[in-house]
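Memo to structure team: turn this sequence into structure tokens by end of day. - J.P.
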Amino acid sequence: MRRDIFQAIADPTRRAIITLIALQAMTPNAIAENFNTTRQAVSKHLRILTECELVKQEPRGREVYFSLEINKMKEVDKWLEQFRQIWETRFNQLDDVLATLKKQQK
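Reply from structure team:
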């Protein structure tokens, strides 16, 4: 079953997992140590993130390491970019208004 990427990142625990593995690949046990929950619950979150292709698994010896799939995160960034541009435009307009008001006070 392929899940929606935005549904997956809507969960705060999954976002925290993404933040953890963004810097380095980690085993499920190492990830679970950062949460006040069971390893099984973390594994369920990892399964959902894997189904969305947000994380990838890499077997190393007897362990499996999870790391972030950067290309999939770019899809999220691309969607957010449209809103970033709107807000940047509005902040620039606000800066212009404030600069005009400051000049008028002098």
